[in-house]
Fold this sequence. Notes:
Layout: H1 4-12, H2 18-47, E1 52-53, E2 59-62, E3 65-68, E4 78-83, H3 95-102, H4 104-111, E5 116-122, H5 126-136, E6 141-144, H6 150-153, H7 160-165, H8 170-173, E7 184-190, E8 196-203, H9 212-217, H10 247-250
Parallel strand pairs: 4-5, 5-6
Antiparallel strand pairs: 1-8, 2-3, 4-7, 7-8
Amino acid sequence: MTNLAGSMQMAQHRVVSREKWLDARKALLVEERALTHARDRVAALRRDLPWVKIEKDYVFEGARGKVRLADLFGPRSQLVVQHFMLTPGSDHICPGCSLGADHVDAARQHFEQADLSFVAVSRATLPEIEVVKKRMGWCFDWVSSHGTSFNYDFGVSFTPEQVARGDVGYNYGTTPYVAEELHGMSIFARNDAGEVFHTYSTYARGSETTVAAFAYLDMVPKGRNENGTMSWVKLHDEYENVSDAGSCCAAE
């Protein structure tokens, strides 16, 4: 379907000489560099956050049986958890969580070499998770926290009573989303003694930088081309002309 607003935006955009474009581009470069330096500064502050020792014995259900939080690290000392919104008993698959998950398998072949493991965690049961994982073609580890307090303790699942009050305290009480399941990412570290520590969690738009599709779209004239937040996002097997996504894959 043609996006008329986007077409009009493309047709009406101002056009200048190469010299004037270069002046504008250099001015933007100043801002881009300032943003890069600010991002580096914030990343350093993130790494310098104090840690909290995990005292609870969280036990998850995985493809190889029951696993504890420390087991999810594998041979590495750092772990990123994607809190994937998948509610027990529901057939809804979150398009936003799926968009982020679509980037993981390509990225982890690199970050695993830098001492970082990845796992997705959902409250849905393992059989429900396996159905989605197979459909989407993902290979990363994905475990069930069903029956545990893990999702509640890390601020992504909420009781019906909390939802009824209209304020679940999501994103450290700064983002007024209200639902029983919301998304986020949490980071953990494990020391040589096997102790596990919570180092960082982020919610709402905080994990956006892990989604390369956004980075590409942010460089082009139409940007994210949204009618609402992520209004264009679908599960990757639900896009029209999905076979056109990559000629090498479509040819197989």
